[in-house]
């Protein structure tokens, strides 16, 4: 079997390395070493005890259980996205284990990152279907791990809303990457298909149009603002981390649409480099994060570049910058 040697410095297990062969424009054979994920899926068997019973690793064939196999495939697609887009090998950037638990609780209507693993409920079947059915949800949870590994953003108020927003941004980008979509082709939704047919709604959140993802008798209306003038002051939800995230989400969408093409290549790279530069304060607010993205764009693309203009226009479009 072929074994690829990776550039020094990546630090992941060579046994988990794939050699990808492709033909370039000139018809030449190109070999590329690509790391593989190390996924471990466990089953909580409808209890709320973690990690649960291990049901699938890289060595195993599909489990035949829908949630298990969806989680396994979704983590694989998310791993491939972070590698292709940013050269990052997984949550710890060193190819470490991606741990997930499925069938958490009974009719559990959520998914979360607990600091160590991603955890997915089955949904109650009335409002929500299973949380592994959406790649953007799986990637959202994995991205919480990336954020934590990058120094973290305190999970309350504006830094918490930025933490949430970064998970939505990378969640949406993972889905776009797996579908080969450009910014203008994409729907920019988180959790499309996660509601049952009984719910009036298309997804959990919309990055393009925060506040429009659902409007339902039981769930109410999507509470997300898309501009600072509508910022929600609340003690609920850690100071509205899943609500006010609509503002930075829309700033990213505006930036990505202005640049066009594949959103992860420029807009996504700027947001990713800003998160992982190691210079963000864990309590950074929207304005501080916005300035940091502008600095990243300037460092990457130069003063007066199209990218710098697009980033500034994105943040000013949501009232965070002049
Ligand atoms: N689905 C939510 C999230 O990942 C769960 C939570 O708020 N803990 O943000
Ligand atoms: Zn989240």
Automatic annotation (TrEMBL):
Residues 44-68 are annotated as: Disordered. It holds the Pfam family Peptidase_M4_C. Its cofactor is Zn(2+). InterPro entries: Metalloprotease_M4, Peptidase_M4, Peptidase_M4/M1_CTD_sf, Peptidase_M4_C_domain, Peptidase_M4_domain. The keyword Transport does not apply. It is found in: Secreted. The keyword Protease applies. Its main location: secreted. Residues 152-320 form the Peptidase M4 C-terminal domain. Residues 70-148 form the Peptidase M4 domain. Its EC number is 3.4.24.-. Keywords: Hydrolase, Metal-binding, Metalloprotease, Protease, Secreted, Zinc. Extracellular zinc metalloprotease. Belongs to the peptidase M4 family. This is Neutral metalloproteinase. The lineage of its organism: Bacteria, Bacillati, Actinomycetota, Actinomycetes, Micrococcales.
